[in-house]
Here is the input.
Amino acid sequence: MARVMNAVLRYASDISFKVQGLKYLKSCKGSAILVANHQSSFDGFGFSQFWLYVHPCSFVAKNTMAYFGPMGFAVTLCGVVFINRANSKKAMAQLDYQYKQLYDRNSKLLIFPEGTRNFTGTILPFKKGAFCVAIKHQVPIIPIVYSSQIEYFNVRKRFWYNKDMIIRVLPAIPTTGLTLSDVEQLSNSVRELMMKTFEQISK
Here is the structure.
């Protein structure tokens, strides 16, 4: 599937993916929270590059996406976890409940902790949901960093320039022994690590 998606993307936009650090996904056999930076819809194509190594896996999306016609229907069939971002307390409860169902099936969950698409050439401050869930269930966090798209995507014209996008998977970060009082520090340290990686692979 990854080869097919890569071929389609290369044909349609002359973009291809180079995935680094796949060994960190292959070695994680149990449940985990995957956190990735989010820039555009093309991040979904990137996810297809390592789908086989994280399956079964779901990802979090805002609940309004369920009503996006065929796309909403498709992501619903893929087992997307929809949350109501307008109500942070309700969103956290939904996220925790849904992850409990996935945890019981030894599954993984992909979350974009910035909470929205970010096309500024940096990584926005993280929301805390992913880290709360990881600590509560004592499962590792695996950071996934996409290189910057800002230099080869014209937002106004929706035009892509020839480019290889790098996706780097970082080593799993354990949460064993951490408590909810550690959420802030964990969130900040993971973001700092991802920012350094983002700057490295975006050069």
Summary: The first strand starts at residue 15 and ends at 20. The first helix runs from residue 2 to 13. The chain has eight helices and nine strands. The chain has a mean pLDDT of 78.
